[in-house]
Amino acid sequence: AQSVTQLGSHVSVSEGALVLLRCNYSSSVPPYLFWYVQYPNQGLQLLLKYTSAATLVKGINGFEAEFKKSETSFHLTKPSAHMSDAAEYFCAVSVSNTDKLIFGTGTRLQVFP
Amino acid sequence: DAGVTQSPTHLIKTRGQQVTLRCSPKSGHDTVSWYQQALGQGPQFIFQYYEEEERQRGNFPDRFSGHQFPNYSSELNVNALLLGDSALYLCASRGTSNTEAFFGQGTRLTVV
Q1: What percent of chain A has pLDDT over 70?
Q2: Does A102 touch chain B (CB under 8 A)?
Q3: Residue B23 Cα to chain centre, angstroms
Q4: What span, in angstroms and rounded, lies between the C-alpha atoms of B25 and B31?
């Protein structure tokens, strides 16, 4: 069985500060890992994905994540937060490219000026 | 390209009623999945349709059923609505060679 745990339901940072959103996964097979962003009253937008290629994955809007098998982690980072980054972020795991996504409970990012 | 479109955007139903939600996949996509997102939670997988058949199903009761049409559009039906069915219902589509799932804006269902 697969699962995802997102540590911290709320994260607050100042504009220009480092963003770090934590995700740990559990999977009995090599995982496919994803980060999605959800703005208020909208659907989900893919930020980045890990599909067994490079362990450091770069996504849109300056976000990146590093797959660490030894730590079963896939934390999302951005060097400098922008006000427009305020949203809900979801980590998800899957067993393949086409299989169902299993999501974490989400982390709400607030960015203060 | 309109992306994934869902209708209606909002819906209010009474407990015990039945509801149908609709999804048109992104152009070129043939696989449609449905997710339920309760308030403050992550999306939960309901089922996935491919070639007009249910290919995978999550842990949802039989009150939740679906259909996929020859043009790849899909419907989600929920019978005997419960208050707990109130949620944002998301549709996602992908192509057979495409790893990325594209999500629609969702349908906000409120059961009163």
Answers
A1: 99
A2: yes
A3: 7
A4: 8
Residue range B53-109, pLDDT digits in tens? 999 999 999 999 999 999 999 999 999 999 999 999 999 999 877 668 899 999 999
Residue to test with chain B: of A5, A44, A51, most B Cβ within 10 A:
A44
**Are the CB atoms for A26 and A80 separated by under 8 Å?**
no
Cα separations (Å) of B42 from A27, A75, A90, A106? 18, 17, 7, 6
The answer, yes or no, to whether the previous bond of B8 is cis (omega within 30 of 0) is yes
**Cα(A27)–Cα(A4) distance, rounded to whole angstroms?**
9
Note the pLDDT of residue B98: 61
Instruction: Work out the mean pLDDT of chain B and round it to a whole number.
Output: 94
Write the secondary structure of A23-91 as one string of H (helix), E (strand) and C (coil).
Answer: EEEECCCCCEEEEEEECCCCCEEEEEEECCCCCEEECHHHCEEEEECCCCEEEEEECCCCHHHCEEEEE
Asked if B96 reaches chain A (Cβ–Cβ under 8 Å), the answer is yes
**Contact yes or no for A106/A90 (Cβ under 8 A):** yes
- What residue in A sits closest to B10 (Cα-Cα)? A41
Question: Average of pLDDT values for A78-106?
Answer: 92
Mutate to test the interface with A, among B49, B103, B109 (most CBs of A within 10 A): B103
Structure tokens at A91: 């980590």
Nearest residue in chain A measured CA to CA from B50: A98
